[in-house]
Amino acid sequence: MTRIKWAILVISILTFSGHVFSQDEGAITKKGWVLKEKSVYLSGGPAFRFGNNSSDYSGGLNLEGGYLKRINRSLSIGPALSYTKFNYDETISDSFGDEEAEGNNVFYDDPNYEARVVYIEGGDLSLIALGFNVKANFIPLSETKQFSFYGIAKPFVLLSKRTEITASVEHWFYNTIPPDDPENWTFSGPPEFLSSEEQASWAADTEFSGGINLGVGAEFVLPSGVSFFLQGAINLTLPITHINTSEFPNTYDGFYDPDYPLVKKGFSSLNVSIGVAYSF
Predict the structure, then answer these.
(1) Sequence spans of domains, the chain
(2) Could you report the per-residue pLDDT of 47-85, keeping only the tens digit for each?
């Protein structure tokens, strides 16, 4: 009788186990996270002058924040606000004894064997741009994809602010034409100081413009909704007023030009940014 009970128990367990395993049959599907429709982001990084002799500014700083709404698995759009700062760099325009300088701060009057050497200060640029971002993923997003590569286009309106310009002007004499090494010149001091009181166009100024930002980036997405990205973009602006001494001849005509050292031209830069975004 005991053996019969044990046999019934074993048969029952095997039958139950088979039923349970039969419920688990089928392909196992790996579940991903749900694609979020909205995101906010912050980014920052260096900005570099773009193009030869484009201006007398060194590299700057670019900061941006924005909001994006996903339209589909490839396209997102939304507003963005950015701030970029460029400082005037006197080493770019200082051609005194440096024939390879990109700019120009020495002006010659050969008939009279004399020259004016100008040392500029100020003229820093602050660029505040309000734009509309269009972000296109090269490969459509999916719930399990962690890496994304994308392109961006951002037309924008721009507020450009320039600080006041001042300068000291030195008067030199030389003995030969063309002039020899400036170390052999004779200085006739003291220097003359110029400011916006003498040159009205040198006063601090604000103007409106516009442009477009074009670039590409790579993004690493986490299931939590947080993502990190690296982005490079070319920033192309419509004309704004900025320092560009290479636009003026190195004669007294250039020195006495009422616009010196300012030009109103497009101001382009290459921006490299790292950032963080949160999707919700």
Answers:
(1) 42-131+141-279
(2) 998 765 568 998 899 999 999 999 998 999 999 999 999
What is the rounded distance in angstroms from the CA atom of residue 170 to the CA atom of residue 168? 7
Residue keyed to tokens 């396209």 = 75
- pTM (two decimals): 0.83
Torsion, CA 107, CA 109, CA 115, CA 120, rounded to 10: -30
Question: What's the 3-state SS for the chain?
Answer: CHHHHHHHHHHHHHHHHHHHHHHCCCCCCCCCCCCCCEEEEEEEEEEEECCCCCCCECCEEEEEEEEEEECCCCEEEEEEEEEEEECECHHHHCCCCCCCCCCCCEEEEHHHCEEEEEEEEECCEEEEEEEEEEEEECCCCCCCCCEEEEEEEEEEEEEEEECCEEEEEEEEECCCCCCCCHHHCEEEEEEEEECCCCCHHHCCEEEEEEEEEEEEEEEEECCCCEEEEEEEEEEEECCEEEECHHHCCCEHHHHCCCCCCEEEECCCEEEEEEEEEEEC
